[in-house]
Write a structure and sequence with these properties.
mainly alpha, 19 helices, globular
Length: 410
């Protein structure tokens, strides 16, 4: 069963992307992808996984798509119009023979980042449909309720259908406009892989590694884009800690308790070099600055010797570039390390009214930890209980129960 699940994880995105490119309709592609996977579950459980599972799934999905189109003439007529438009775009002379994207999924990342879609819908659609995240996982990535996210995804599909947005590779002149949306999507995939929003595991390494793979492709495609270098550097520097982030039972291991000898030094070296590229030759971008912060953590011998003044200074820069409550939360945690828990807690209290942080697990945990460090145990216990109520994965809940028990026993 694990082998089958691994095949589905690997092939689903490729299958969906190829079907969208072939038929030009996202809803149809999703439906027949699900049908093909359902058929595979029945056949493979008896016959075993075929030598070329991707080809098996593609053949099955195409047959199901053709059957569906034959049954629905109105649907087929609409798709015929879309197909003519897609064929016309596909046969247009390319601006640059080397400009084709080397992965169909990445082609569709750019397509779903079309400027005709609202910014929040672009990422939501891509994460749900092309990266394979569930609607609750996408909602967590954007800090919105699940119902709100479901409506966004439906709205985005409707917009693509009604506006006849073509599924094609954007031209070289369109790439810069769409790049920020694509970077955000890749980062969101990695974030879900770094700390899973639900399930039995803290990390989903398949998602994290998929995000890194896509970022590497994007880096090869756009070597002059410093923010692409910054994103890839950030992902590598954070992913370098993956083996030390969990204990024997899968429980979280905090940064100050991690065995830094288990950090991946090759990834740290590669990521640090990308930071230099990202911060050279012009004003910094959000991913370059975040990568620089990650590099300071990775290069320090331990938590005490981390250059906290420099970390806070970089968060000041980041906050100017991206004045979001999540950045302010991370800056407050850094200030607590530089100036003490009371200073950090004061900044967290200033953020208490932020709607996006209400019920946000990392905010509640940060506040509980600072209250604990200050000896305000009843308040710390209450904050840990609040965090426990909204914690996503089981390892996080186990970790918080232990911290709560330690506070209550003090």
């Amino acid at each position: 069963m694990r082998e089958v699940e691994a095949v589905f994880r690997e092939e689903r995105g490729r299958l969906l992307a190829a079907l969208v490119r072939r038929f030009g309709d996202l809803d149809l592609a999703e439906e027949v992808t699900s049908d093909a996977i359902e058929a595979a579950l029945k056949h493979w459980s008896v016959e075993g996984v075929p030598p070329k599972p991707g080809a098996w799934l593609m053949t099955t999905a195409r047959r199901k798509a053709v059957d569906r189109l034959r049954r629905d003439q109105a649907f087929a007529a609409r798709l015929a119009i879309l197909q003519v438009e897609a064929d016309r775009a596909a046969h247009a002379p390319p601006a640059d023979a080397d400009g084709e994207l080397p992965d169909e999924r990445l082609q569709l990342f750019f397509t779903c980042a079309h400027p005709a879609l609202p910014a929040e819908d672009r990422g939501a659609l891509t994460l749900r449909c092309l990266a394979g995240l569930t609607t609750p996982e996408v909602a967590r990535a954007y800090l919105v309720p699940v119902q709100t996210m479901a409506k966004r995804i439906v709205r985005a599909k409707k917009k693509i259908r009604e506006a006849r947005i073509p599924f094609r590779v954007p031209g070289a002149d369109e790439l810069p406009e769409r790049l920020p949306g694509v970077l955000q999507v890749i980062y969101s995939i990695f974030t879900e892989g770094y700390a899973a929003s639900s399930g039995p595991d803290l990390q989903r390494l398949d998602l994290a590694e998929e995000a890194i793979r896509l970022a590497r492709i994007l880096r090869r495609l756009l070597p002059a884009e410093r923010e692409v270098a910054g994103l890839l550097g950030l992902l590598l520097l954070v992913h370098a800690r993956r083996d030390a982030r969990t204990g024997p039972g899968g429980e979280p291991v905090l940064l100050d308790e991690q065995d830094r000898g288990r950090w991946d030094r090759d990834l740290i070296e590669e990521g640090s070099a990308l930071v230099v590229t990202a911060l050279s030759g012009g004003p910094p971008g959000v991913y370059g600055v975040q990568a620089a912060i990650a590099a300071l953590h990775d290069e320090a011998a331990d938590l005490a010797t981390t250059d906290w003044p420099q970390v806070v200074a970089l968060y000041d820069v980041l906050l100017a570039l991206d004045p979001s409550p999540v950045v302010a939360l991370n800056r407050a945690a850094a200030v607590a390390m530089r100036d003490g828990p009371e200073a950090g807690l004061a900044l967290l209290d200033e953020l208490a009214g932020e709607p996006r942080l209400r019920g946000y697990h990392p905010y509640l945990v940060a506040r509980a930890d600072l209250l604990h460090r200050l000896g305000r145990l009843p308040e710390a216990a209450a904050a840990y209980r609040a965090a426990l109520e909204v914690a996503g994965s089981e390892p996080e809940r186990v970790h918080l129960r232990r911290r709560l028990a330690a506070v209550e026993e003090s």
